[in-house]
Amino acid sequence: MENKTILITGTTTGTGFVAAQTVAELGAKLIMLNRPSERSKTAQSKIIEKSPKKEVYTIDCDLQSFSSVRKAIEKIIEKCPEGIDVICNNAGVMALTDIATEDGFDIQMQTNHLSHFLLVCDLFKLLEKTAEEKGESRIVNHSSVARLTVKKLRKEYLEKNGGNLGGNGKSMIFGGARWKRYGQTKLANAAFTAALHEKLMKKGSKIKALVAHPGLSNTQLQVTTIKDGGMAKKMTRFMMKRSQSEEDGSIGILSCICLPEAKSGQFWGPGKGMMAMKGKAKPFKLENSYNNFKTITLLWEKSCEAIGKEFII
Ligand SMILES: NC(=O)c1ccc[n+]([C@@H]2O[C@H](COP(=O)([O-])OP(=O)(O)OC[C@H]3O[C@@H](n4cnc5c(N)ncnc54)[C@H](OP(=O)(O)O)[C@@H]3O)[C@@H](O)[C@H]2O)c1
């Protein structure tokens, strides 16, 4: 990872923390994009301590707010004149209350997908610079098995309907609205990858678009959902007995970030199939449920509308 500039969102805990710590230890210049908190400060000091180059930076970036993301983008452009090797869109929240962000979107969709779309759009030139000079750069998204819990991507979840997207039903099995919204965001992560891959291929670009999922991984994700009333504590404790560690869960995104053989258009996940919850990470193909013209067109048009500008590749 030496001589590489790597951006990762959501590195205070979980898979993002492990990925950030790993690439910094391997010699990368690391930019962590986190909302301000004690957790963010602790991650910064823990990671810099073990990094040989001490090129570890935190830039405040609250993915619930486009204005915060735009301020972060300005700082990234100043800090990375050399270009960007990898943007890893890792941060996420799960099954939260039906509320709107200050921009009017669903809190889950803006955090998990729309703000990441804005980041990639406005930093695209720096990815192109690195791809031209070094032969490649990468965009890595983090999806979930939850992408398969919704049949298709629906436009209302990508529009300014925050707070009006079905309420706070929390049943995972019987299609509670909190989980439908989460499923839509994780389908959006996979569809964003499919759309990027197709557009980059058509252009003959050297930028790679990849996606991973961590199976069921023992991070803070479920803890945050429990606090928000989206999961029961006892049931979650039982479920998490079947989980893998956050280190094992991070191998999907780390493979997409680091492995020379990882290819654009791959979906890295654990175990034997695309539904597996644990196991060794390996590459799979993108699935037809989102890797199709209708879905990627909808995803792109609605995401551009949300950020208020065209993103032309
Ligand atoms: N764990 C699993 O079983 C599992 C399964 C499938 C997919 N995933 C995906 O894996 C990714 C990483 O999650 P994780 O499991 O590692 O959970 P985690 O430990 O809760 O980490 C989530 C990270 O996202 C950050 N984040 C949340 N809201 C943010 C915001 N508004 N602005 C900036 N950062 C924000 C959190 O920062 P704060 O400290 O500021 O909250 C934290 O650093 C997510 O995309 C998730 O959907 C996880």
Widest sheet, order of strands: 3-2-1-4-5-6-7-8
Percentage of residues in strands: 5-15%
The portion of residues assigned to helices is 40-55%
Bound molecules: NADP nicotinamide-adenine-dinucleotide phosphate
Major pleated sheet: 8 strands, mixed
Q: How many strands?
A: 8
Output the helix-strand order. Answer: EHEHEHEHEHEHHHHEEH
> What's the name of the CATH homologous superfamily?
NAD(P)-binding Rossmann-like Domain
Structural class label: alpha/beta
Radius of gyration: 18 Å
Shape descriptor reads: globular
Structure commentary:
This protein has about 325 residues and is an alpha/beta fold. The chain has a single domain (about 5-305), classed as Rossmann fold, CATH 3.40.50. It is about 45% helix and about 15% strand. It contains 10 helices and 8 strands. It has helices spanning about 15-25, 40-50, 65-80, 105-135, 175-205, 220-225, 235-240, 245-250, 250-260, 295-305, and strands at about 5-10, 30-35, 55-60, 85-90, 135-140, 205-210, 265-270, 280-285. An 8-stranded mixed sheet has the order 3-2-1-4-5-6-7-8, sandwiched between helices. α5 (about 175-205) links the parallel β5 (about 135-140) and β6 (about 205-210). α1 (about 15-25) runs parallel beside α2 (about 40-50) and α5 crosses α10. It is globular, with a radius of gyration of 18 Å. The two termini are about 25 Å apart. The mean pLDDT is about 95.
